[in-house]
């Protein structure tokens, strides 16, 4: 049984259809990437998986749970990093971790997480004084603080410097090796190519391709995942592509 | 009945308390400023003499309940709404919704912290008034506490409604400030209720802070708070409480 299964998910905001028809399944221990242009509906889909939004159609199951109905249990076992969410300005890094530890049955060791994310020196720093990348790392730490079985990471490495990005990849591989299933959204094709076992490309609310990065590039006859992505989502740019 | 507070709720309340203590402006306006007004008013000798226009009472005696209402209004209208609207605006409530702890708990934690701040500020004002200016402690203490609770219900209902409607912390801040001064006028911040013309006092009776000060002054001087004033406060509390619950959005 897949850990995450999304079948014919549909979600609209008023008249605007954000997710028209999205289906995919993520197997245990997999790192699965959701790719797609801005506004494709990735965040909306992740939010439905996380139980933050109620789908208008289709079914979503995570660890066999209905995210909307079984939210309390789901949130114990699923860690979520949202694309845009902050902390109170005067809350300090260490305090945020300790606070979130108190929310979970079986929390991780906050000092170890700070160390893994290179935030040990920022322990006493208020949120408003953190750099963008430091905020992002804190957000990843908070997604992992509950020792989740599933991690949902929306734009995992946006805003990170190259070194921090590599560290984040190593961290994601490490948590996968410890048995965590990862669903991540990214705009970095090199990241998806190196990190993800499989990716789904979403365009205008629909899945237009779903495969391993290697299969995807091979089937389209292009050298990189970025070329495959552009061929799938921006055919108008054909003459700009390196073929 | 299980009355224990869960560990996550305690952790949240402790955190909210720390954050509150780190806001110098909130501390000044709720703890410092009422004391400054008290001392400034008490320093004027005539405020400590029996006044005919106040029915033989001293100005300082009838002014302490105005300050009590001031404290609660400051917290409910000026401190609480921008915090909650900001939490929503900045995605803090949404992040909380991804954890096992419901965002309603942060609301509860905020209200608990605000209530605690109100108690500390009230005790300070009553103590300084008693020690420095011989203002007797409320002679009907149970009635006084009841009046305070009804006042808090009415004002926090209004404050939560502002937090529910305001899209940003900035708007919440402005809305609270715009409401605060007219409401405090009817409470008698500038002109004691006893000296208001009858028509104006009737209007004051129907406003949340006018009713609050009426009820508190009654209890302070030894009678039970009037049913009309308590009913007015309860009506505001109920109406705005329901409105806030219906309008509040997590994002
Ligand atoms: N809260 C909302 N209310 C109304 N419309 C929304 C809301 N959130 C998203 N949308 C719309 O739904 C569509 C999909 O948005 P979504 O955030 O899911 O895209 P995305 O794939 O995550 O994009 P990005 O790569 O820019 O993060 C967009 O057209 C967006 O304008
Ligand atoms: Mg997005």
Question: Cα-atom Rg of chain B, whole angstroms?
Answer: 19 Å
Give the DSSP E fraction of chain B (strand runs of 2 or more residues).
under 5%
The class by helix and strand makeup of chain B works out as mainly alpha
The low-confidence parts of chain A are none
The largest contact between protein chains, plus residue counts on each side, is:
A-B, 26 and 21 residues
Bound molecule kinds, no repeats: adenosine-5'-triphosphate, magnesium ion
Note the total helix count of chain B: 10
| N- to C-terminal distance of chain B | 34 Å
Major pleated sheet of chain B: none
Tell me the total number of β-strands of chain A.
9
Question: How would you explain this protein's 3D organization?
Answer:
The complex is a heterodimer of chains A (243) and B (251). Chain A contains nine helices and nine strands. Chain A is of the alpha/beta class. Chain A is globular, with a radius of gyration of 18 Å. Chain A has a six-stranded mixed beta sheet with strand order 5-6-7-3-8-9, with helices on both faces. A three-stranded antiparallel beta sheet of chain A has the order 2-1-4, with helices on one face. In chain A, strand 1 and strand 2 form a beta hairpin. In chain A, helix 8 (213-220) packs across helix 9 (225-233). Chain B is an all-alpha fold and 251 residues long. Helix content of chain B is 75%, strand content 0%. Chain B is built from ten helices and no strands. Chain B has helices spanning 7-21, 24-43, 59-89, 92-97, 104-133, 141-165, 169-187, 198-206, 208-220, 227-247. In chain B, helix 2 (24-43) packs parallel to helix 5 (104-133), helix 3 packs parallel to helix 6 (141-165) and helix 6 (141-165) runs antiparallel to helix 7 (169-187). The radius of gyration of chain B is 19 Å and the shape is globular. The chains are: A alpha/beta (243), B mainly alpha (251). Chain A binds chain B through residues 50-52, 72, 75-76, 78, 80, 82, 84-88, 90-91, 95, 98-100, 102-105, 142, 146, and chain B through 7-8, 10-12, 15, 18-19, 22-23, 87, 90-92, 94-95, 97-101. Magnesium ion binds at residues 42-43, 83, 154 of chain A.
């Amino acid at each position: 049984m897949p850990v995450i299964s999304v079948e014919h998910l549909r979600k609209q905001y008023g008249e605007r259809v954000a997710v028209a028809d999205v289906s995919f399944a993520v197997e245990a221990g997999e790192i699965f990437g959701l790719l797609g242009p801005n506004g494709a509906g990735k965040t909306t889909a992740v939010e439905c998986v996380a139980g933050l939004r109620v789908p208008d159609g289709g079914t979503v199951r995570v660890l066999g749970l209905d995210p909307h109905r079984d939210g309390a249990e789901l949130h114990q076992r699923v860690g979520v990093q949202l694309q845009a969410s902050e902390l109170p300005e005067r809350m300090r890094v260490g305090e945020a971790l300790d606070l979130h530890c108190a929310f979970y049955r079986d929390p991780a060791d906050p000092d170890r997480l700070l160390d893994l994310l290179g935030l040990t020196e920022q322990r006493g720093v208020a949120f408003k004084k953190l750099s963008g990348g430091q905020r992002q790392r804190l957000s990843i730490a908070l997604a992992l603080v509950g020792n989740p079985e599933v991690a949902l990471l929306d734009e995992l490495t946006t805003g990170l410097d190259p070194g921090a990005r590599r560290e984040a990849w190593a961290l994601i591989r490490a948590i996968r090796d410890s048995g965590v299933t990862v669903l991540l959204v990214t705009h970095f094709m090199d990241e998806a190519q190196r990190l993800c076992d499989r990716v789904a490309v979403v365009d205008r609310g629909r899945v237009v391709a779903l495969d391993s990065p290697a299969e995807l590039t091979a089937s389209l006859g292009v050298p990189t995942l970025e070329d495959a992505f552009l061929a799938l989502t921006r055919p108008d740019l054909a003459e700009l592509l390196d073929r | 009945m299980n009355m224990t507070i869960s560990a996550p709720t305690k952790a949240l309340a402790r955190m909210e308390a720390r954050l509150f203590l780190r806001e110098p402006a909130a501390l000044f306006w709720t703890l410092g400023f009422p004391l400054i007004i008290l001392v400034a008013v008490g320093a004027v000798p005539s405020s400590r003499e029996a006044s005919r226009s106040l029915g033989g009472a001293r100005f300082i005696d009838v002014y302490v309940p105005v300050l009590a209402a001031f404290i609660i209004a400051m917290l409910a209208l000026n401190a609480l709404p921008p915090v909650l609207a900001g939490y929503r605006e900045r995605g803090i409530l949404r992040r909380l919704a991804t954890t096992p702890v419901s965002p309603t708990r942060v609301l509860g934690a905020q209200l608990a912290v605000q209530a605690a701040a109100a108690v500390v500020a009230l005790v300070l004002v009553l103590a300084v008034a008693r020690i420095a200016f011989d203002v007797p402690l409320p002679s009907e203490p149970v009635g006084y506490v009841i009046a305070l609770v009804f006042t808090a219900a009415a004002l926090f209902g209004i404050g939560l409604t502002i937090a529910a409607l305001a899209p940003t912390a900035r708007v919440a801040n402005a809305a609270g400030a715009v409401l605060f001064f007219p409401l405090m006028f009817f409470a008698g911040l500038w002109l004691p209720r006893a000296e208001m013309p009858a028509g104006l006092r009737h209007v004051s009776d129907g406003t949340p802070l006018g009713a609050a000060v009426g009820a508190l002054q009654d209890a302070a001087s030894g009678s039970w708070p009037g049913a009309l004033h308590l009913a007015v406060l309860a009506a505001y509390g109920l109406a705005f409480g329901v409105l806030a619950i219906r309008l509040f959005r997590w994002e």
